[in-house]
Amino acid sequence: MVLVGATGSGKSTFAARHFRPTEVISSDFCRGLVSDDENDQTASRDAFDVLHYIAGKRLAAGRLTVVDATSVQSESRRQLIALAREHDVLPIAIVLDVPERVCAERNAARPDRAGMPRHVIQRHQRELRRSLRQLEREGFRKVHILRGPEEIDAAEVVRERRYNDLRHLTGPFDIIGDIHGCRSELETLLGRLGYALRYDEAGRPAGAAHPGGRTAVFVGDLVDRGPDSPGVLRLVMNMVEAGTALCVPGNHENKLGRYLKGRTVRMSHGLAETVAQLEKEDEAFRARAGEFIGGLVSHYVLDGGGLVVCHAGLPEKYHGRTSGRVRSHALYGETTGETDEFGLPVRYPWAEDYRGRAAVVYGHTPVPRASWLNNTICLDTGCVFGGRMTALRWPERELVDVPAERVWYEPVKPLDSGAPGGAEGRPLDLGDVTGRRVVETRHHGRVAVREENAAAALEVMSRFALAPELVPYLPPTMAPCATSAEEGYLEHPAEAFAGYRADGVREVMCQEKHMGSRAVALVCRDGRTAAERFGVPDGGVPGALYTRTGRPFLDDPELTRRVLARLADCAEAAGLWAELDTPWLLLDTELMPWSLKAAGLLRHQYAAVGAASRAVLPGVLDALETAAARGVETSGLLERQRGRPADAEAFTEAYRRYCWPVGDPARPWPGARAEGGASGEAAGAAGAAGDAGAGGSGVPGEAEPGGCRGEGGPETDGLDGIRLAPFQLLAAEGRNLAVEPHDVQLVWIDRLIAAEAAMAERTEAGHTEHGPEKAGRTAGSGPAAAAAHPAADTAPHPAAGAAEDAAKAPPSGAPGGGEPASRPRPPRVNRLLHPTRRLLVDTADEASVAAGVRWWLELTGAGGEGMVVKPLRPLARDGRGRLVQPGVKVRGREYLRIVYGPEYARPGNLERLRARHLGHKRSLALREYALGLEALDRLAGGEPLWRVHEAVFAVLALESEPVDPRL
Predict the structure, then answer these.
(1) pLDDT of residue 783
(2) Strands 215-218 and 173-176: what pairing?
(3) How far apart are CA 44 and CA 30, in angstroms?
(4) Dihedral of CA 374/375/376/377: which sign?
(5) pLDDT tens digit string along 297-318?
(6) How far apart are CA 675 and CA 956, in angstroms?
(7) Which of 68, 231, 621, 832 could disulfide-link to 183, CB 3.0 to 4.6 Å?
(8) Which residues neighbour 649 within 8 Å (Cβ) at sequence distance 6 or greater?
(9) pLDDT at 425
């Protein structure tokens, strides 16, 4: 808003009366900023530079800006109008036309202007008179002229919303893509959306309303190419007039509107058909249609600014703005100036660069299917070309579509995925991941990645990780529960249950925490899927098995192939391929034993501690006892030292539980890739579980389940001793499965494990037929096996018990498997999949909470690592709408010796450790969780690789944030 008037006309008084002080920029004030004297006319140039700069910043932010300067010269106004156009806002002039006498009297009353020459006021008055007739021609959208002090004093400023500002409308909305005269499909789609249609006396659809109060929003291109453009106009116009719909114009309406006004237009792209159809309507209908089209606004900002609807898409800088440039982009989009092989303009992929907070819903460019891209979505799925008509339910973000009844208009070029949101997109670019990044997530808003963290992630991703196509997800870190005040415990489930209860989460699922290494498995049903969907070359491993940092888990590609093939076979036998209608699955798992990946860590860190303790502590005790016998006062020191061997032994036993030898001794395999780059043979990893440098052969005592087969045993499939515990299905084609409740997840997992058990039973039967083995001795079958490995009676699903029995049974290749047969036998199927025990707890029920605590105590007392407590239904939010922790880990008392050291549980040490700070770890867990879900949403939605990789890379970058690694 530009105040125009001679000096002394009262502009500053008027501005102070009607606008906030921060909304007004005064030339006098800016002159004082640069020269310390508001009346120093020699500083005017610098003062107006400051004024224009401040005004530009305010306009860029979309804030009302009032310029308090004389502005009686056309040159000064021209600069302000250019500034308004630059920021796509409307300039408005308020003229204060006050007699020369009044201006002179007011200046004389001001000490700083008492000596102002009269000719200055007279010159301002002459320039004002010349300006009055040309203000609108200069570019002011509105001009308000207030004549005389009385009219100025009586004036009232009323603020009105811009036509495109409908932020006060919060929906819910049903946003409908391009219709192009397909009235019948529109009727069907409205019916699917729940709208009740109303028909006129001629049986034509003449309106529709939703019983739930929802509002339909049309993205334009109602007409042309289809069979009944007048029918579509009639229905939409009546809905808009009745208040049950909103509509923005498309480029086809714009062209039809010009035709109805008598302008000369080219009768192409379906306009001729629409004109012919309109000829059958009366003049009143055509006039009404022209008026309706002429009144459409280029775009709407809805739902508190969180939703923008337009026809061809709109960058964030144009949201809520008003100018010819904004309208042009909303109607036609932006082109590169090139044409493709079909003679059509090449459109600039603005959505690929979009990072705005508001969701932008649009149409215009036909795509085979609607998919989200950077919080934008194109709903034009080519109904008139034989595709589908699509609607988006907001705020549910649910897509609803109906198929075209036929091909109504042959497209100039075929529908493909080259438009924004297509599956191909553009190639990866270094600029996507370098520098400071901000990733927009659906569930946790914007997540920032610092430049130094991005550099660290780039180092890992570029040097060690698998190809980005094979790393569509990285699992997030997990925060521990609140520190426990329970005597002798650093972590206790009571804190986990109390925390979720305080957040309003009543049902939580407690899952056994497996002590192994986190592994993500990308499983493809066949090689063709791996090649077409994930770019695996012919003959390559059909999928991937990788670590939390995207590195290949196993060095041996053949072993990776066997693990993935087993998972694919189990998914087939369990019926998951068909049920989920997908040719690939992404699973979150734990791969055991721990020594499979952490051999170097065990050798150089953990085993060394145990060996050093056994070597040093006996001598220390002997020396102290000898000194005590001589009368030296050592009682306090001796007492402290006597407890250290027991702590060291407990430390050694804590990590030994998670180590055992793996692989076929007749064919040692290269082992697993360690995070630090170390790898070794299975025997070496097992040896690390013994004394450092002692050449131990593994965990003392009886062979752990999964140990190497004995000499002379049957041929195996090479998976001896390896255990894979899947605990979540992450994604499938078209679905983010990570948002499914955890009880549903565990049923799927149980089915996989039960399918493998059935496969093993069939193979065992085959071995019985080929050799002297007896069915009663088959591993994992019969009452003896069931008694030895009882299922957890807390499992909420019947299938879990059978699956657990099968997975806990010793492998068929273990010693004692029978004498070799005299004829060839097929390889045994070792039990790879391991169950996850679980318990459902009601945090509001004291008995249920007590049962959960007892279950954890039994689990950890038997050597288990602990448990993870998760809200039964993911994406839980607290009373203030904030995302709560997706899961917290509660680790056992003895297991924490591995983390905090052998003597952490001593009272003094435990008290110091209770001061640990969890805030940063919890924040990191939430941010990484949101990024992981975002990656899965984009993957399931078929978005381009660079879009999926953006979120995956951000998870890896956040992992380099400084945080206590013991948490």
Answers:
(1) 29
(2) parallel
(3) 9
(4) positive
(5) 999 999 999 999 999 999 999 9
(6) 14
(7) 231
(8) 610, 613
(9) 55
